[in-house]
Amino acid sequence: MTDPQSNIRAIGIAAEANQFLTFNLAGEEFGIDILRVQEIKGITKIKPLPNLPAHIKGLLNLRGKVIPIVDMRTKFSLPNRDYDRFSVIIVVVIDEHPVGLAVDAVSEVLDFASEQIEPAPRIAGADTAFMDGIAKTDERMITLLNLDQLIATEVLQLNVAS
């Protein structure tokens, strides 16, 4: 049997920092390292820009700082839907740059013990580099996201240019 602490080290999650902000997309639960979250805000006016990848919805003025907004439904090829009162933007920090992630709803902050986290499964023909692992509870499985792999260079370049 694999040592749970080695699972944590293998997937790049600090053993002492197992807190994740969880959110919903199309009924599925995802988690991101709470230490990467700068703030959570309601959906407001996003300025669309031409010639961007479909998952980059545009730019948002966040207290004088212009940040790119990634629609996570589009990023994961999920069906589009209008934003509603539960939709939020999770502002995360990637390479010292803020990026907004538009999601259906934020759930909660969860602590996971090391033995609850397994490495991302390897699936033939599927790109799972964006996954840090799967956190399991008695009744739930939460996909833990690797923000550095998930948010492509083009988003960071857009952020630097703004």
UniProtKB/TrEMBL annotation:
Q: Which UniProt keywords apply?
A: Cytoplasm
Q: Where in the cell is it found?
A: Cytoplasm
Superkingdom classification of source: Bacteria
Q: Gene3D superfamilies recorded for this chain?
A: CheA-289, Domain 4, SH3 Domains
Report the PANTHER family cross-referenced here: CHEMOTAXIS PROTEIN CHEW (PTHR22617:SF45), CHEMOTAXIS SENSOR HISTIDINE KINASE-RELATED (PTHR22617)
Q: What is this protein called?
A: Chemotaxis protein CheW
- Might you report a single GO cellular component term? cytosol
One GO BP annotation of this record? signal transduction
- An example Pfam family from this entry, by short name, is CheW
Which residues does the UniProt record annotate as the domain CheW-like?
A: 17-156
* The species this protein was found in: Stieleria bergensis
- The record's gene field reads cheW_2
Chief place where the protein resides: cytoplasm
